[in-house]
User: Which sequence fits this backbone?
């Protein structure tokens, strides 16, 4: 004797739900969200390459300080010109939106230090720079976060003098 039709439906739904539950449980218990590495030397090489890229991106850029131009405006203009070149070259997404530079601390022997922020395509890029009025030079570096949080790639002394 066959069970009634409604009972056949209920049993089918219960069996299907149990199968889905078992499948989800199996996948969750056999999946790890941890990043595993198969090759420690490959990971070390990737870390070195990432650090080298950050160091290259943070390399000092030098510009000439125009006569009769305020230091903050001059460093701001130099950084905007560099960012525009990177956007035009396809290294960064544009457009260039806003920028600001503020002096940090008192002027030292190497000149006045500045902290700058430039925004392009909704992303803020921090810069540091030094304006040496006597030598009529501007030196600035882009400040990137470390590729690995525990690592710190120091900026060039030229940018932090």
Assistant:
């Amino acid at each position: 004797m066959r069970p009634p039709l409604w009972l056949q439906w209920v049993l089918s739904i219960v069996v299907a739900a149990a199968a889905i539950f078992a499948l989800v449980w199996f996948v969750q218990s056999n999946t790890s969200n941890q990043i595993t590495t198969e090759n420690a030397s490959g990971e070390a090489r990737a870390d070195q390459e990432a650090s080298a890229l950050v160091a290259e991106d943070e390399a000092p850029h030098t510009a000439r300080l125009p006569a009769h131009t305020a230091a903050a405006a001059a460093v701001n203009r130099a950084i905007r010109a560099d960012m525009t070149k990177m956007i035009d070259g396809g290294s960064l997404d544009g457009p260039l939106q806003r920028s600001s530079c503020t002096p940090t601390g008192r002027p030292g022997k190497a000149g006045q230090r500045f902290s700058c922020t430039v925004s392009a395509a909704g992303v803020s890029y921090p810069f540091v720079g030094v304006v040496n009025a006597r030598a009529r030079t501007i030196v600035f570096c882009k400040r990137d976060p470390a590729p690995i949080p525990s690592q710190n790639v120091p900026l060039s002394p030229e940018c932090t003098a």
Q: What stands out?
A: Strands lie at 61-64, 96-103, 112-120, 123-132, 137-142. Helices lie at 5-29, 40-57, 71-88, 157-160.
